[in-house]
Amino acid sequence: MINAEIAKVLKRLHYPLEVMLTCMRWYVAYPLSLRHLEEMMAERGISVDQSTVHRWALKMLLPALNKIFRRSKRPVGKSWRMDETYILVRGKWKYLYRAVDKGGNTIDFLLRAQPDKAAARRFFEKAIAQHGQPDTVTIDGSASNLAALHDVNAERETPVTIRQVKYLNNIVEQDHRAIKRLTRSMLGKDFRCARILLGGIELMHMIAKGQMQAHEERNPSAAEQFYSLAA
To answer: Which residues does the UniProt record annotate as the domain DDE (predicted)?
Structure first.
């Protein structure tokens, strides 16, 4: 049975769901361009142009799959490691805020145009709204991240413990690499496109790390878990 949210999307589409989900998984799991996907589908006897795949990703499937995944994401720990990295979008550097717990599980992410206190605060507010308040947040020497956390603490009865210990953030810095390795094919996209595609990449990365609650006794593969979001 197809998920109700995916069923709404399918009313506007004319390709088999299996074909669309396969394209979406390949796109967010591997460093492939839209042209690569068009050629790979053609080799399998399926005619679909790259603009169609792009439309599936941005306007329909990836936003819906992300929304569904959020409801089945495993709880994360209360000790967070937060850092920002940079992504080149249409020739300009944009800033991806990310956090993982001490076990390496992704907590949240947010793409912003500027690396400032407002961006860092928006990230923390988003992450806390989704996962609850952490006990500790470890950051590097960033003054804007520290100021944002102080602002967040000013509004809470129980403040978050802040640690500025760079070596403890190695785990999130290493985790950045898995995401940035897949962003090369989106360099020409605009900010909105990059934000949606990054969401899909982060989604597949979380599934690969075992962050999706499985409803079966067996241990399904990452691909099977991705496809099950539509069921």
So the answer is: 78-211
Residue 40: CB partners within 8 Å, gap ≥ 6?
26, 32
Do both 69 and 88 map to the same domain?
no
Alpha carbon separation from 161 to 52, 70, 125, 137, 150 (Å, rounded): 47, 26, 16, 6, 10
Domain limit, last residue, from 144, 159, 180: 180
Whether 130 and 193 map to the same domain: the answer is no
Residues 11 and 33 in one domain: yes
Same domain, 221 and 173: no
- Total domain count, the chain: 2
> pTM of the full predicted structure?
0.91
- The per-residue pLDDT string of the chain (231 residues; one tens digit each, 9 = 90 and over) reads 677 777 776 666 678 889 989 999 999 999 888 899 999 999 999 999 999 888 888 877 888 899 999 999 999 999 999 999 999 888 889 999 999 999 999 999 999 999 999 999 999 999 999 999 999 999 998 999 999 999 999 999 999 999 998 888 899 999 999 999 888 656 667 888 889 999 999 999 999 999 998 766 678 899 999 999 988
Asked whether the beta carbons of 149 and 162 are under 8 A apart, the reply is yes
Quick one: 221 exposed, middle or buried, by C-beta within 10 A (0-12, 13-18, 19+)? exposed
